[in-house]
Task: inverse folding
């Protein structure tokens, strides 16, 4: 049986603490035949301390060879003054760039037990399950020119450039349509075609991709500002949202907060399918950072990290039943009142990182029995 190769990069702060819980989940699945093999590497401040760089060439080679990378979090005050090129985030950016991870997937799922934690009314978000597909390697964050010039009249001018080529829009649209087919088969594409020519092209290419290959999927277009409004007004109308780097950055944060704590949010970043194997390079990571304020206290919520592994099961290994099982185990642990500090209401009893991990394993056992 082929092995499934994982590279675990725990990183800094709470990264190693939450990764320890994922390792237990991997061992649980392996005991039932999933055949995961994992290597570990250093990234961020941990890599800087060991190698003087945010990720070593050796670990980059491991990343290139892995079927999926499971990434914790990087950064912390200890590395605030290291040289710019060696800052912890440089490791994350190098991984994204070298592996060509252009599609960022951010699900916003509302666990029934946490419906009260949202800033929206319970009935608006109960049962919410949307997926934001954000273009991650193009657009205004990378477009040239990107500069501040001195106009020599006491004024300065700042320029960022929003730029998209057809192929960049086509490939992200394809990811969104493909994913919609595994869900409720609906895509909403968001741009600003009313004021931006890049929005016009985005709209045109998404429509053409839909007509050519995905006409079975329902496609809707929405202006990104209206989309933001609809996300907080009636979020359950959406299934998959596809949008560019800038709008995706904002809209995915809005959608994320509908569901409660940062400690609950997983993400995936995918590259293009390999020409021979069809497999995509992929990295799975919680949305949150290294939380130095609680590192070492056992207070970190491991759910975002464990749910990121569930995304790896689903998207890199097509282990849909296993992914469903793991997500159900998380949901059941929450139903039984398990709460780390970040998701507990005032006065509610809390559990540690390890206890939450154990509770999820116990639910996996119960579901598999
Ligand atoms: P953060 O996400 O680390 O923390 C924000 C707040 O949320 C903190 O109060 C933290 O305790 C809490 N929190 C985060 N994750 C949690 C979890 N799993 N369980 C419980 N509480 C949790 O953001 P920050 O404080 O702005 O940044 C801290 C460091 O992380 C910085 O060095 C920053 O650059 C880095 N960072 C890294 C990533 C990444 O690795 N992808 C992302 C964001 C920030």
Result:
């Amino acid at each position: 049986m082929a092995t499934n190769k994982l590279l675990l990069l725990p990183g800094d702060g709470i990264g190693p603490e939450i990764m320890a819980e994922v390792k237990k989940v991997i061992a649980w699945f392996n005991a039932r035949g999933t055949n995961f093999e994992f290597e570990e590497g250093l990234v961020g401040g941990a890599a800087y301390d060991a190698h003087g760089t945010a990720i070593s060439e050796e670990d980059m080679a491991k990343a290139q060879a892995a079927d999926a990378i499971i990434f914790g979090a990087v950064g912390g005050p200890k590395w605030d003054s290291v040289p710019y090129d060696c800052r912890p985030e440089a490791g994350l950016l190098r991984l994204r760039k070298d592996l060509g991870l252009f599609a960022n997937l951010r699900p916003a799922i509302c666990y029934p037990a946490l419906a009260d934690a949202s800033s929206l009314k319970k009935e608006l978000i109960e049962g919410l399950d949307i997926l934001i597909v954000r273009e991650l390697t193009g657009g205004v964050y990378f477009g040239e020119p990107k500069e501040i010039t001195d106009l020599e009249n006491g004024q300065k001018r700042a320029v960022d450039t929003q730029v998209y080529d057809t192929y960049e829009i086509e490939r992200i649209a394809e990811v969104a349509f493909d994913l919609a087919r595994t869900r409720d088969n609906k895509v909403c594409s968001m741009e600003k075609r009313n004021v931006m020519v890049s929005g016009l092209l985005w709209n045109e290419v998404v429509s053409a991709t839909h007509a050519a290959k995905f006409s079975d999927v329902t496609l809707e277009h929405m202006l990104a500002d209206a989309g933001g409004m609809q996300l907080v007004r009636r979020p359950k109308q959406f299934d998959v949202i596809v949008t560019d780097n800038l709008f995706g950055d904002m809209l995915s944060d809005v959608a994320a907060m509908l569901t409660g704590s940062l400690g609950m949010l997983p993400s995936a970043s995918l590259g293009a399918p390999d020409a021979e194997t069809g497999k995509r390079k992929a990295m799975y990571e919680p949305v949150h950072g290294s939380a130095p304020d609680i590192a070492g206290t056992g207070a970190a919520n491991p759910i975002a990290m464990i749910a990121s592994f569930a995304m790896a099961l689903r998207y890199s290994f097509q282990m849909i039943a296993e992914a469903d099982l793991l997500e159900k185990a998380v949901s059941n642990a929450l139903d039984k009142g398990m709460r780390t500090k970040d998701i507990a209401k005032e006065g509610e009893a809390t559990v540690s990182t390890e206890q939450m991990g154990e509770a999820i394993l116990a639910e996996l056992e119960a579901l598999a029995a």
Summary: Residues 265 and 304 are 5 Å apart (CA to CA).
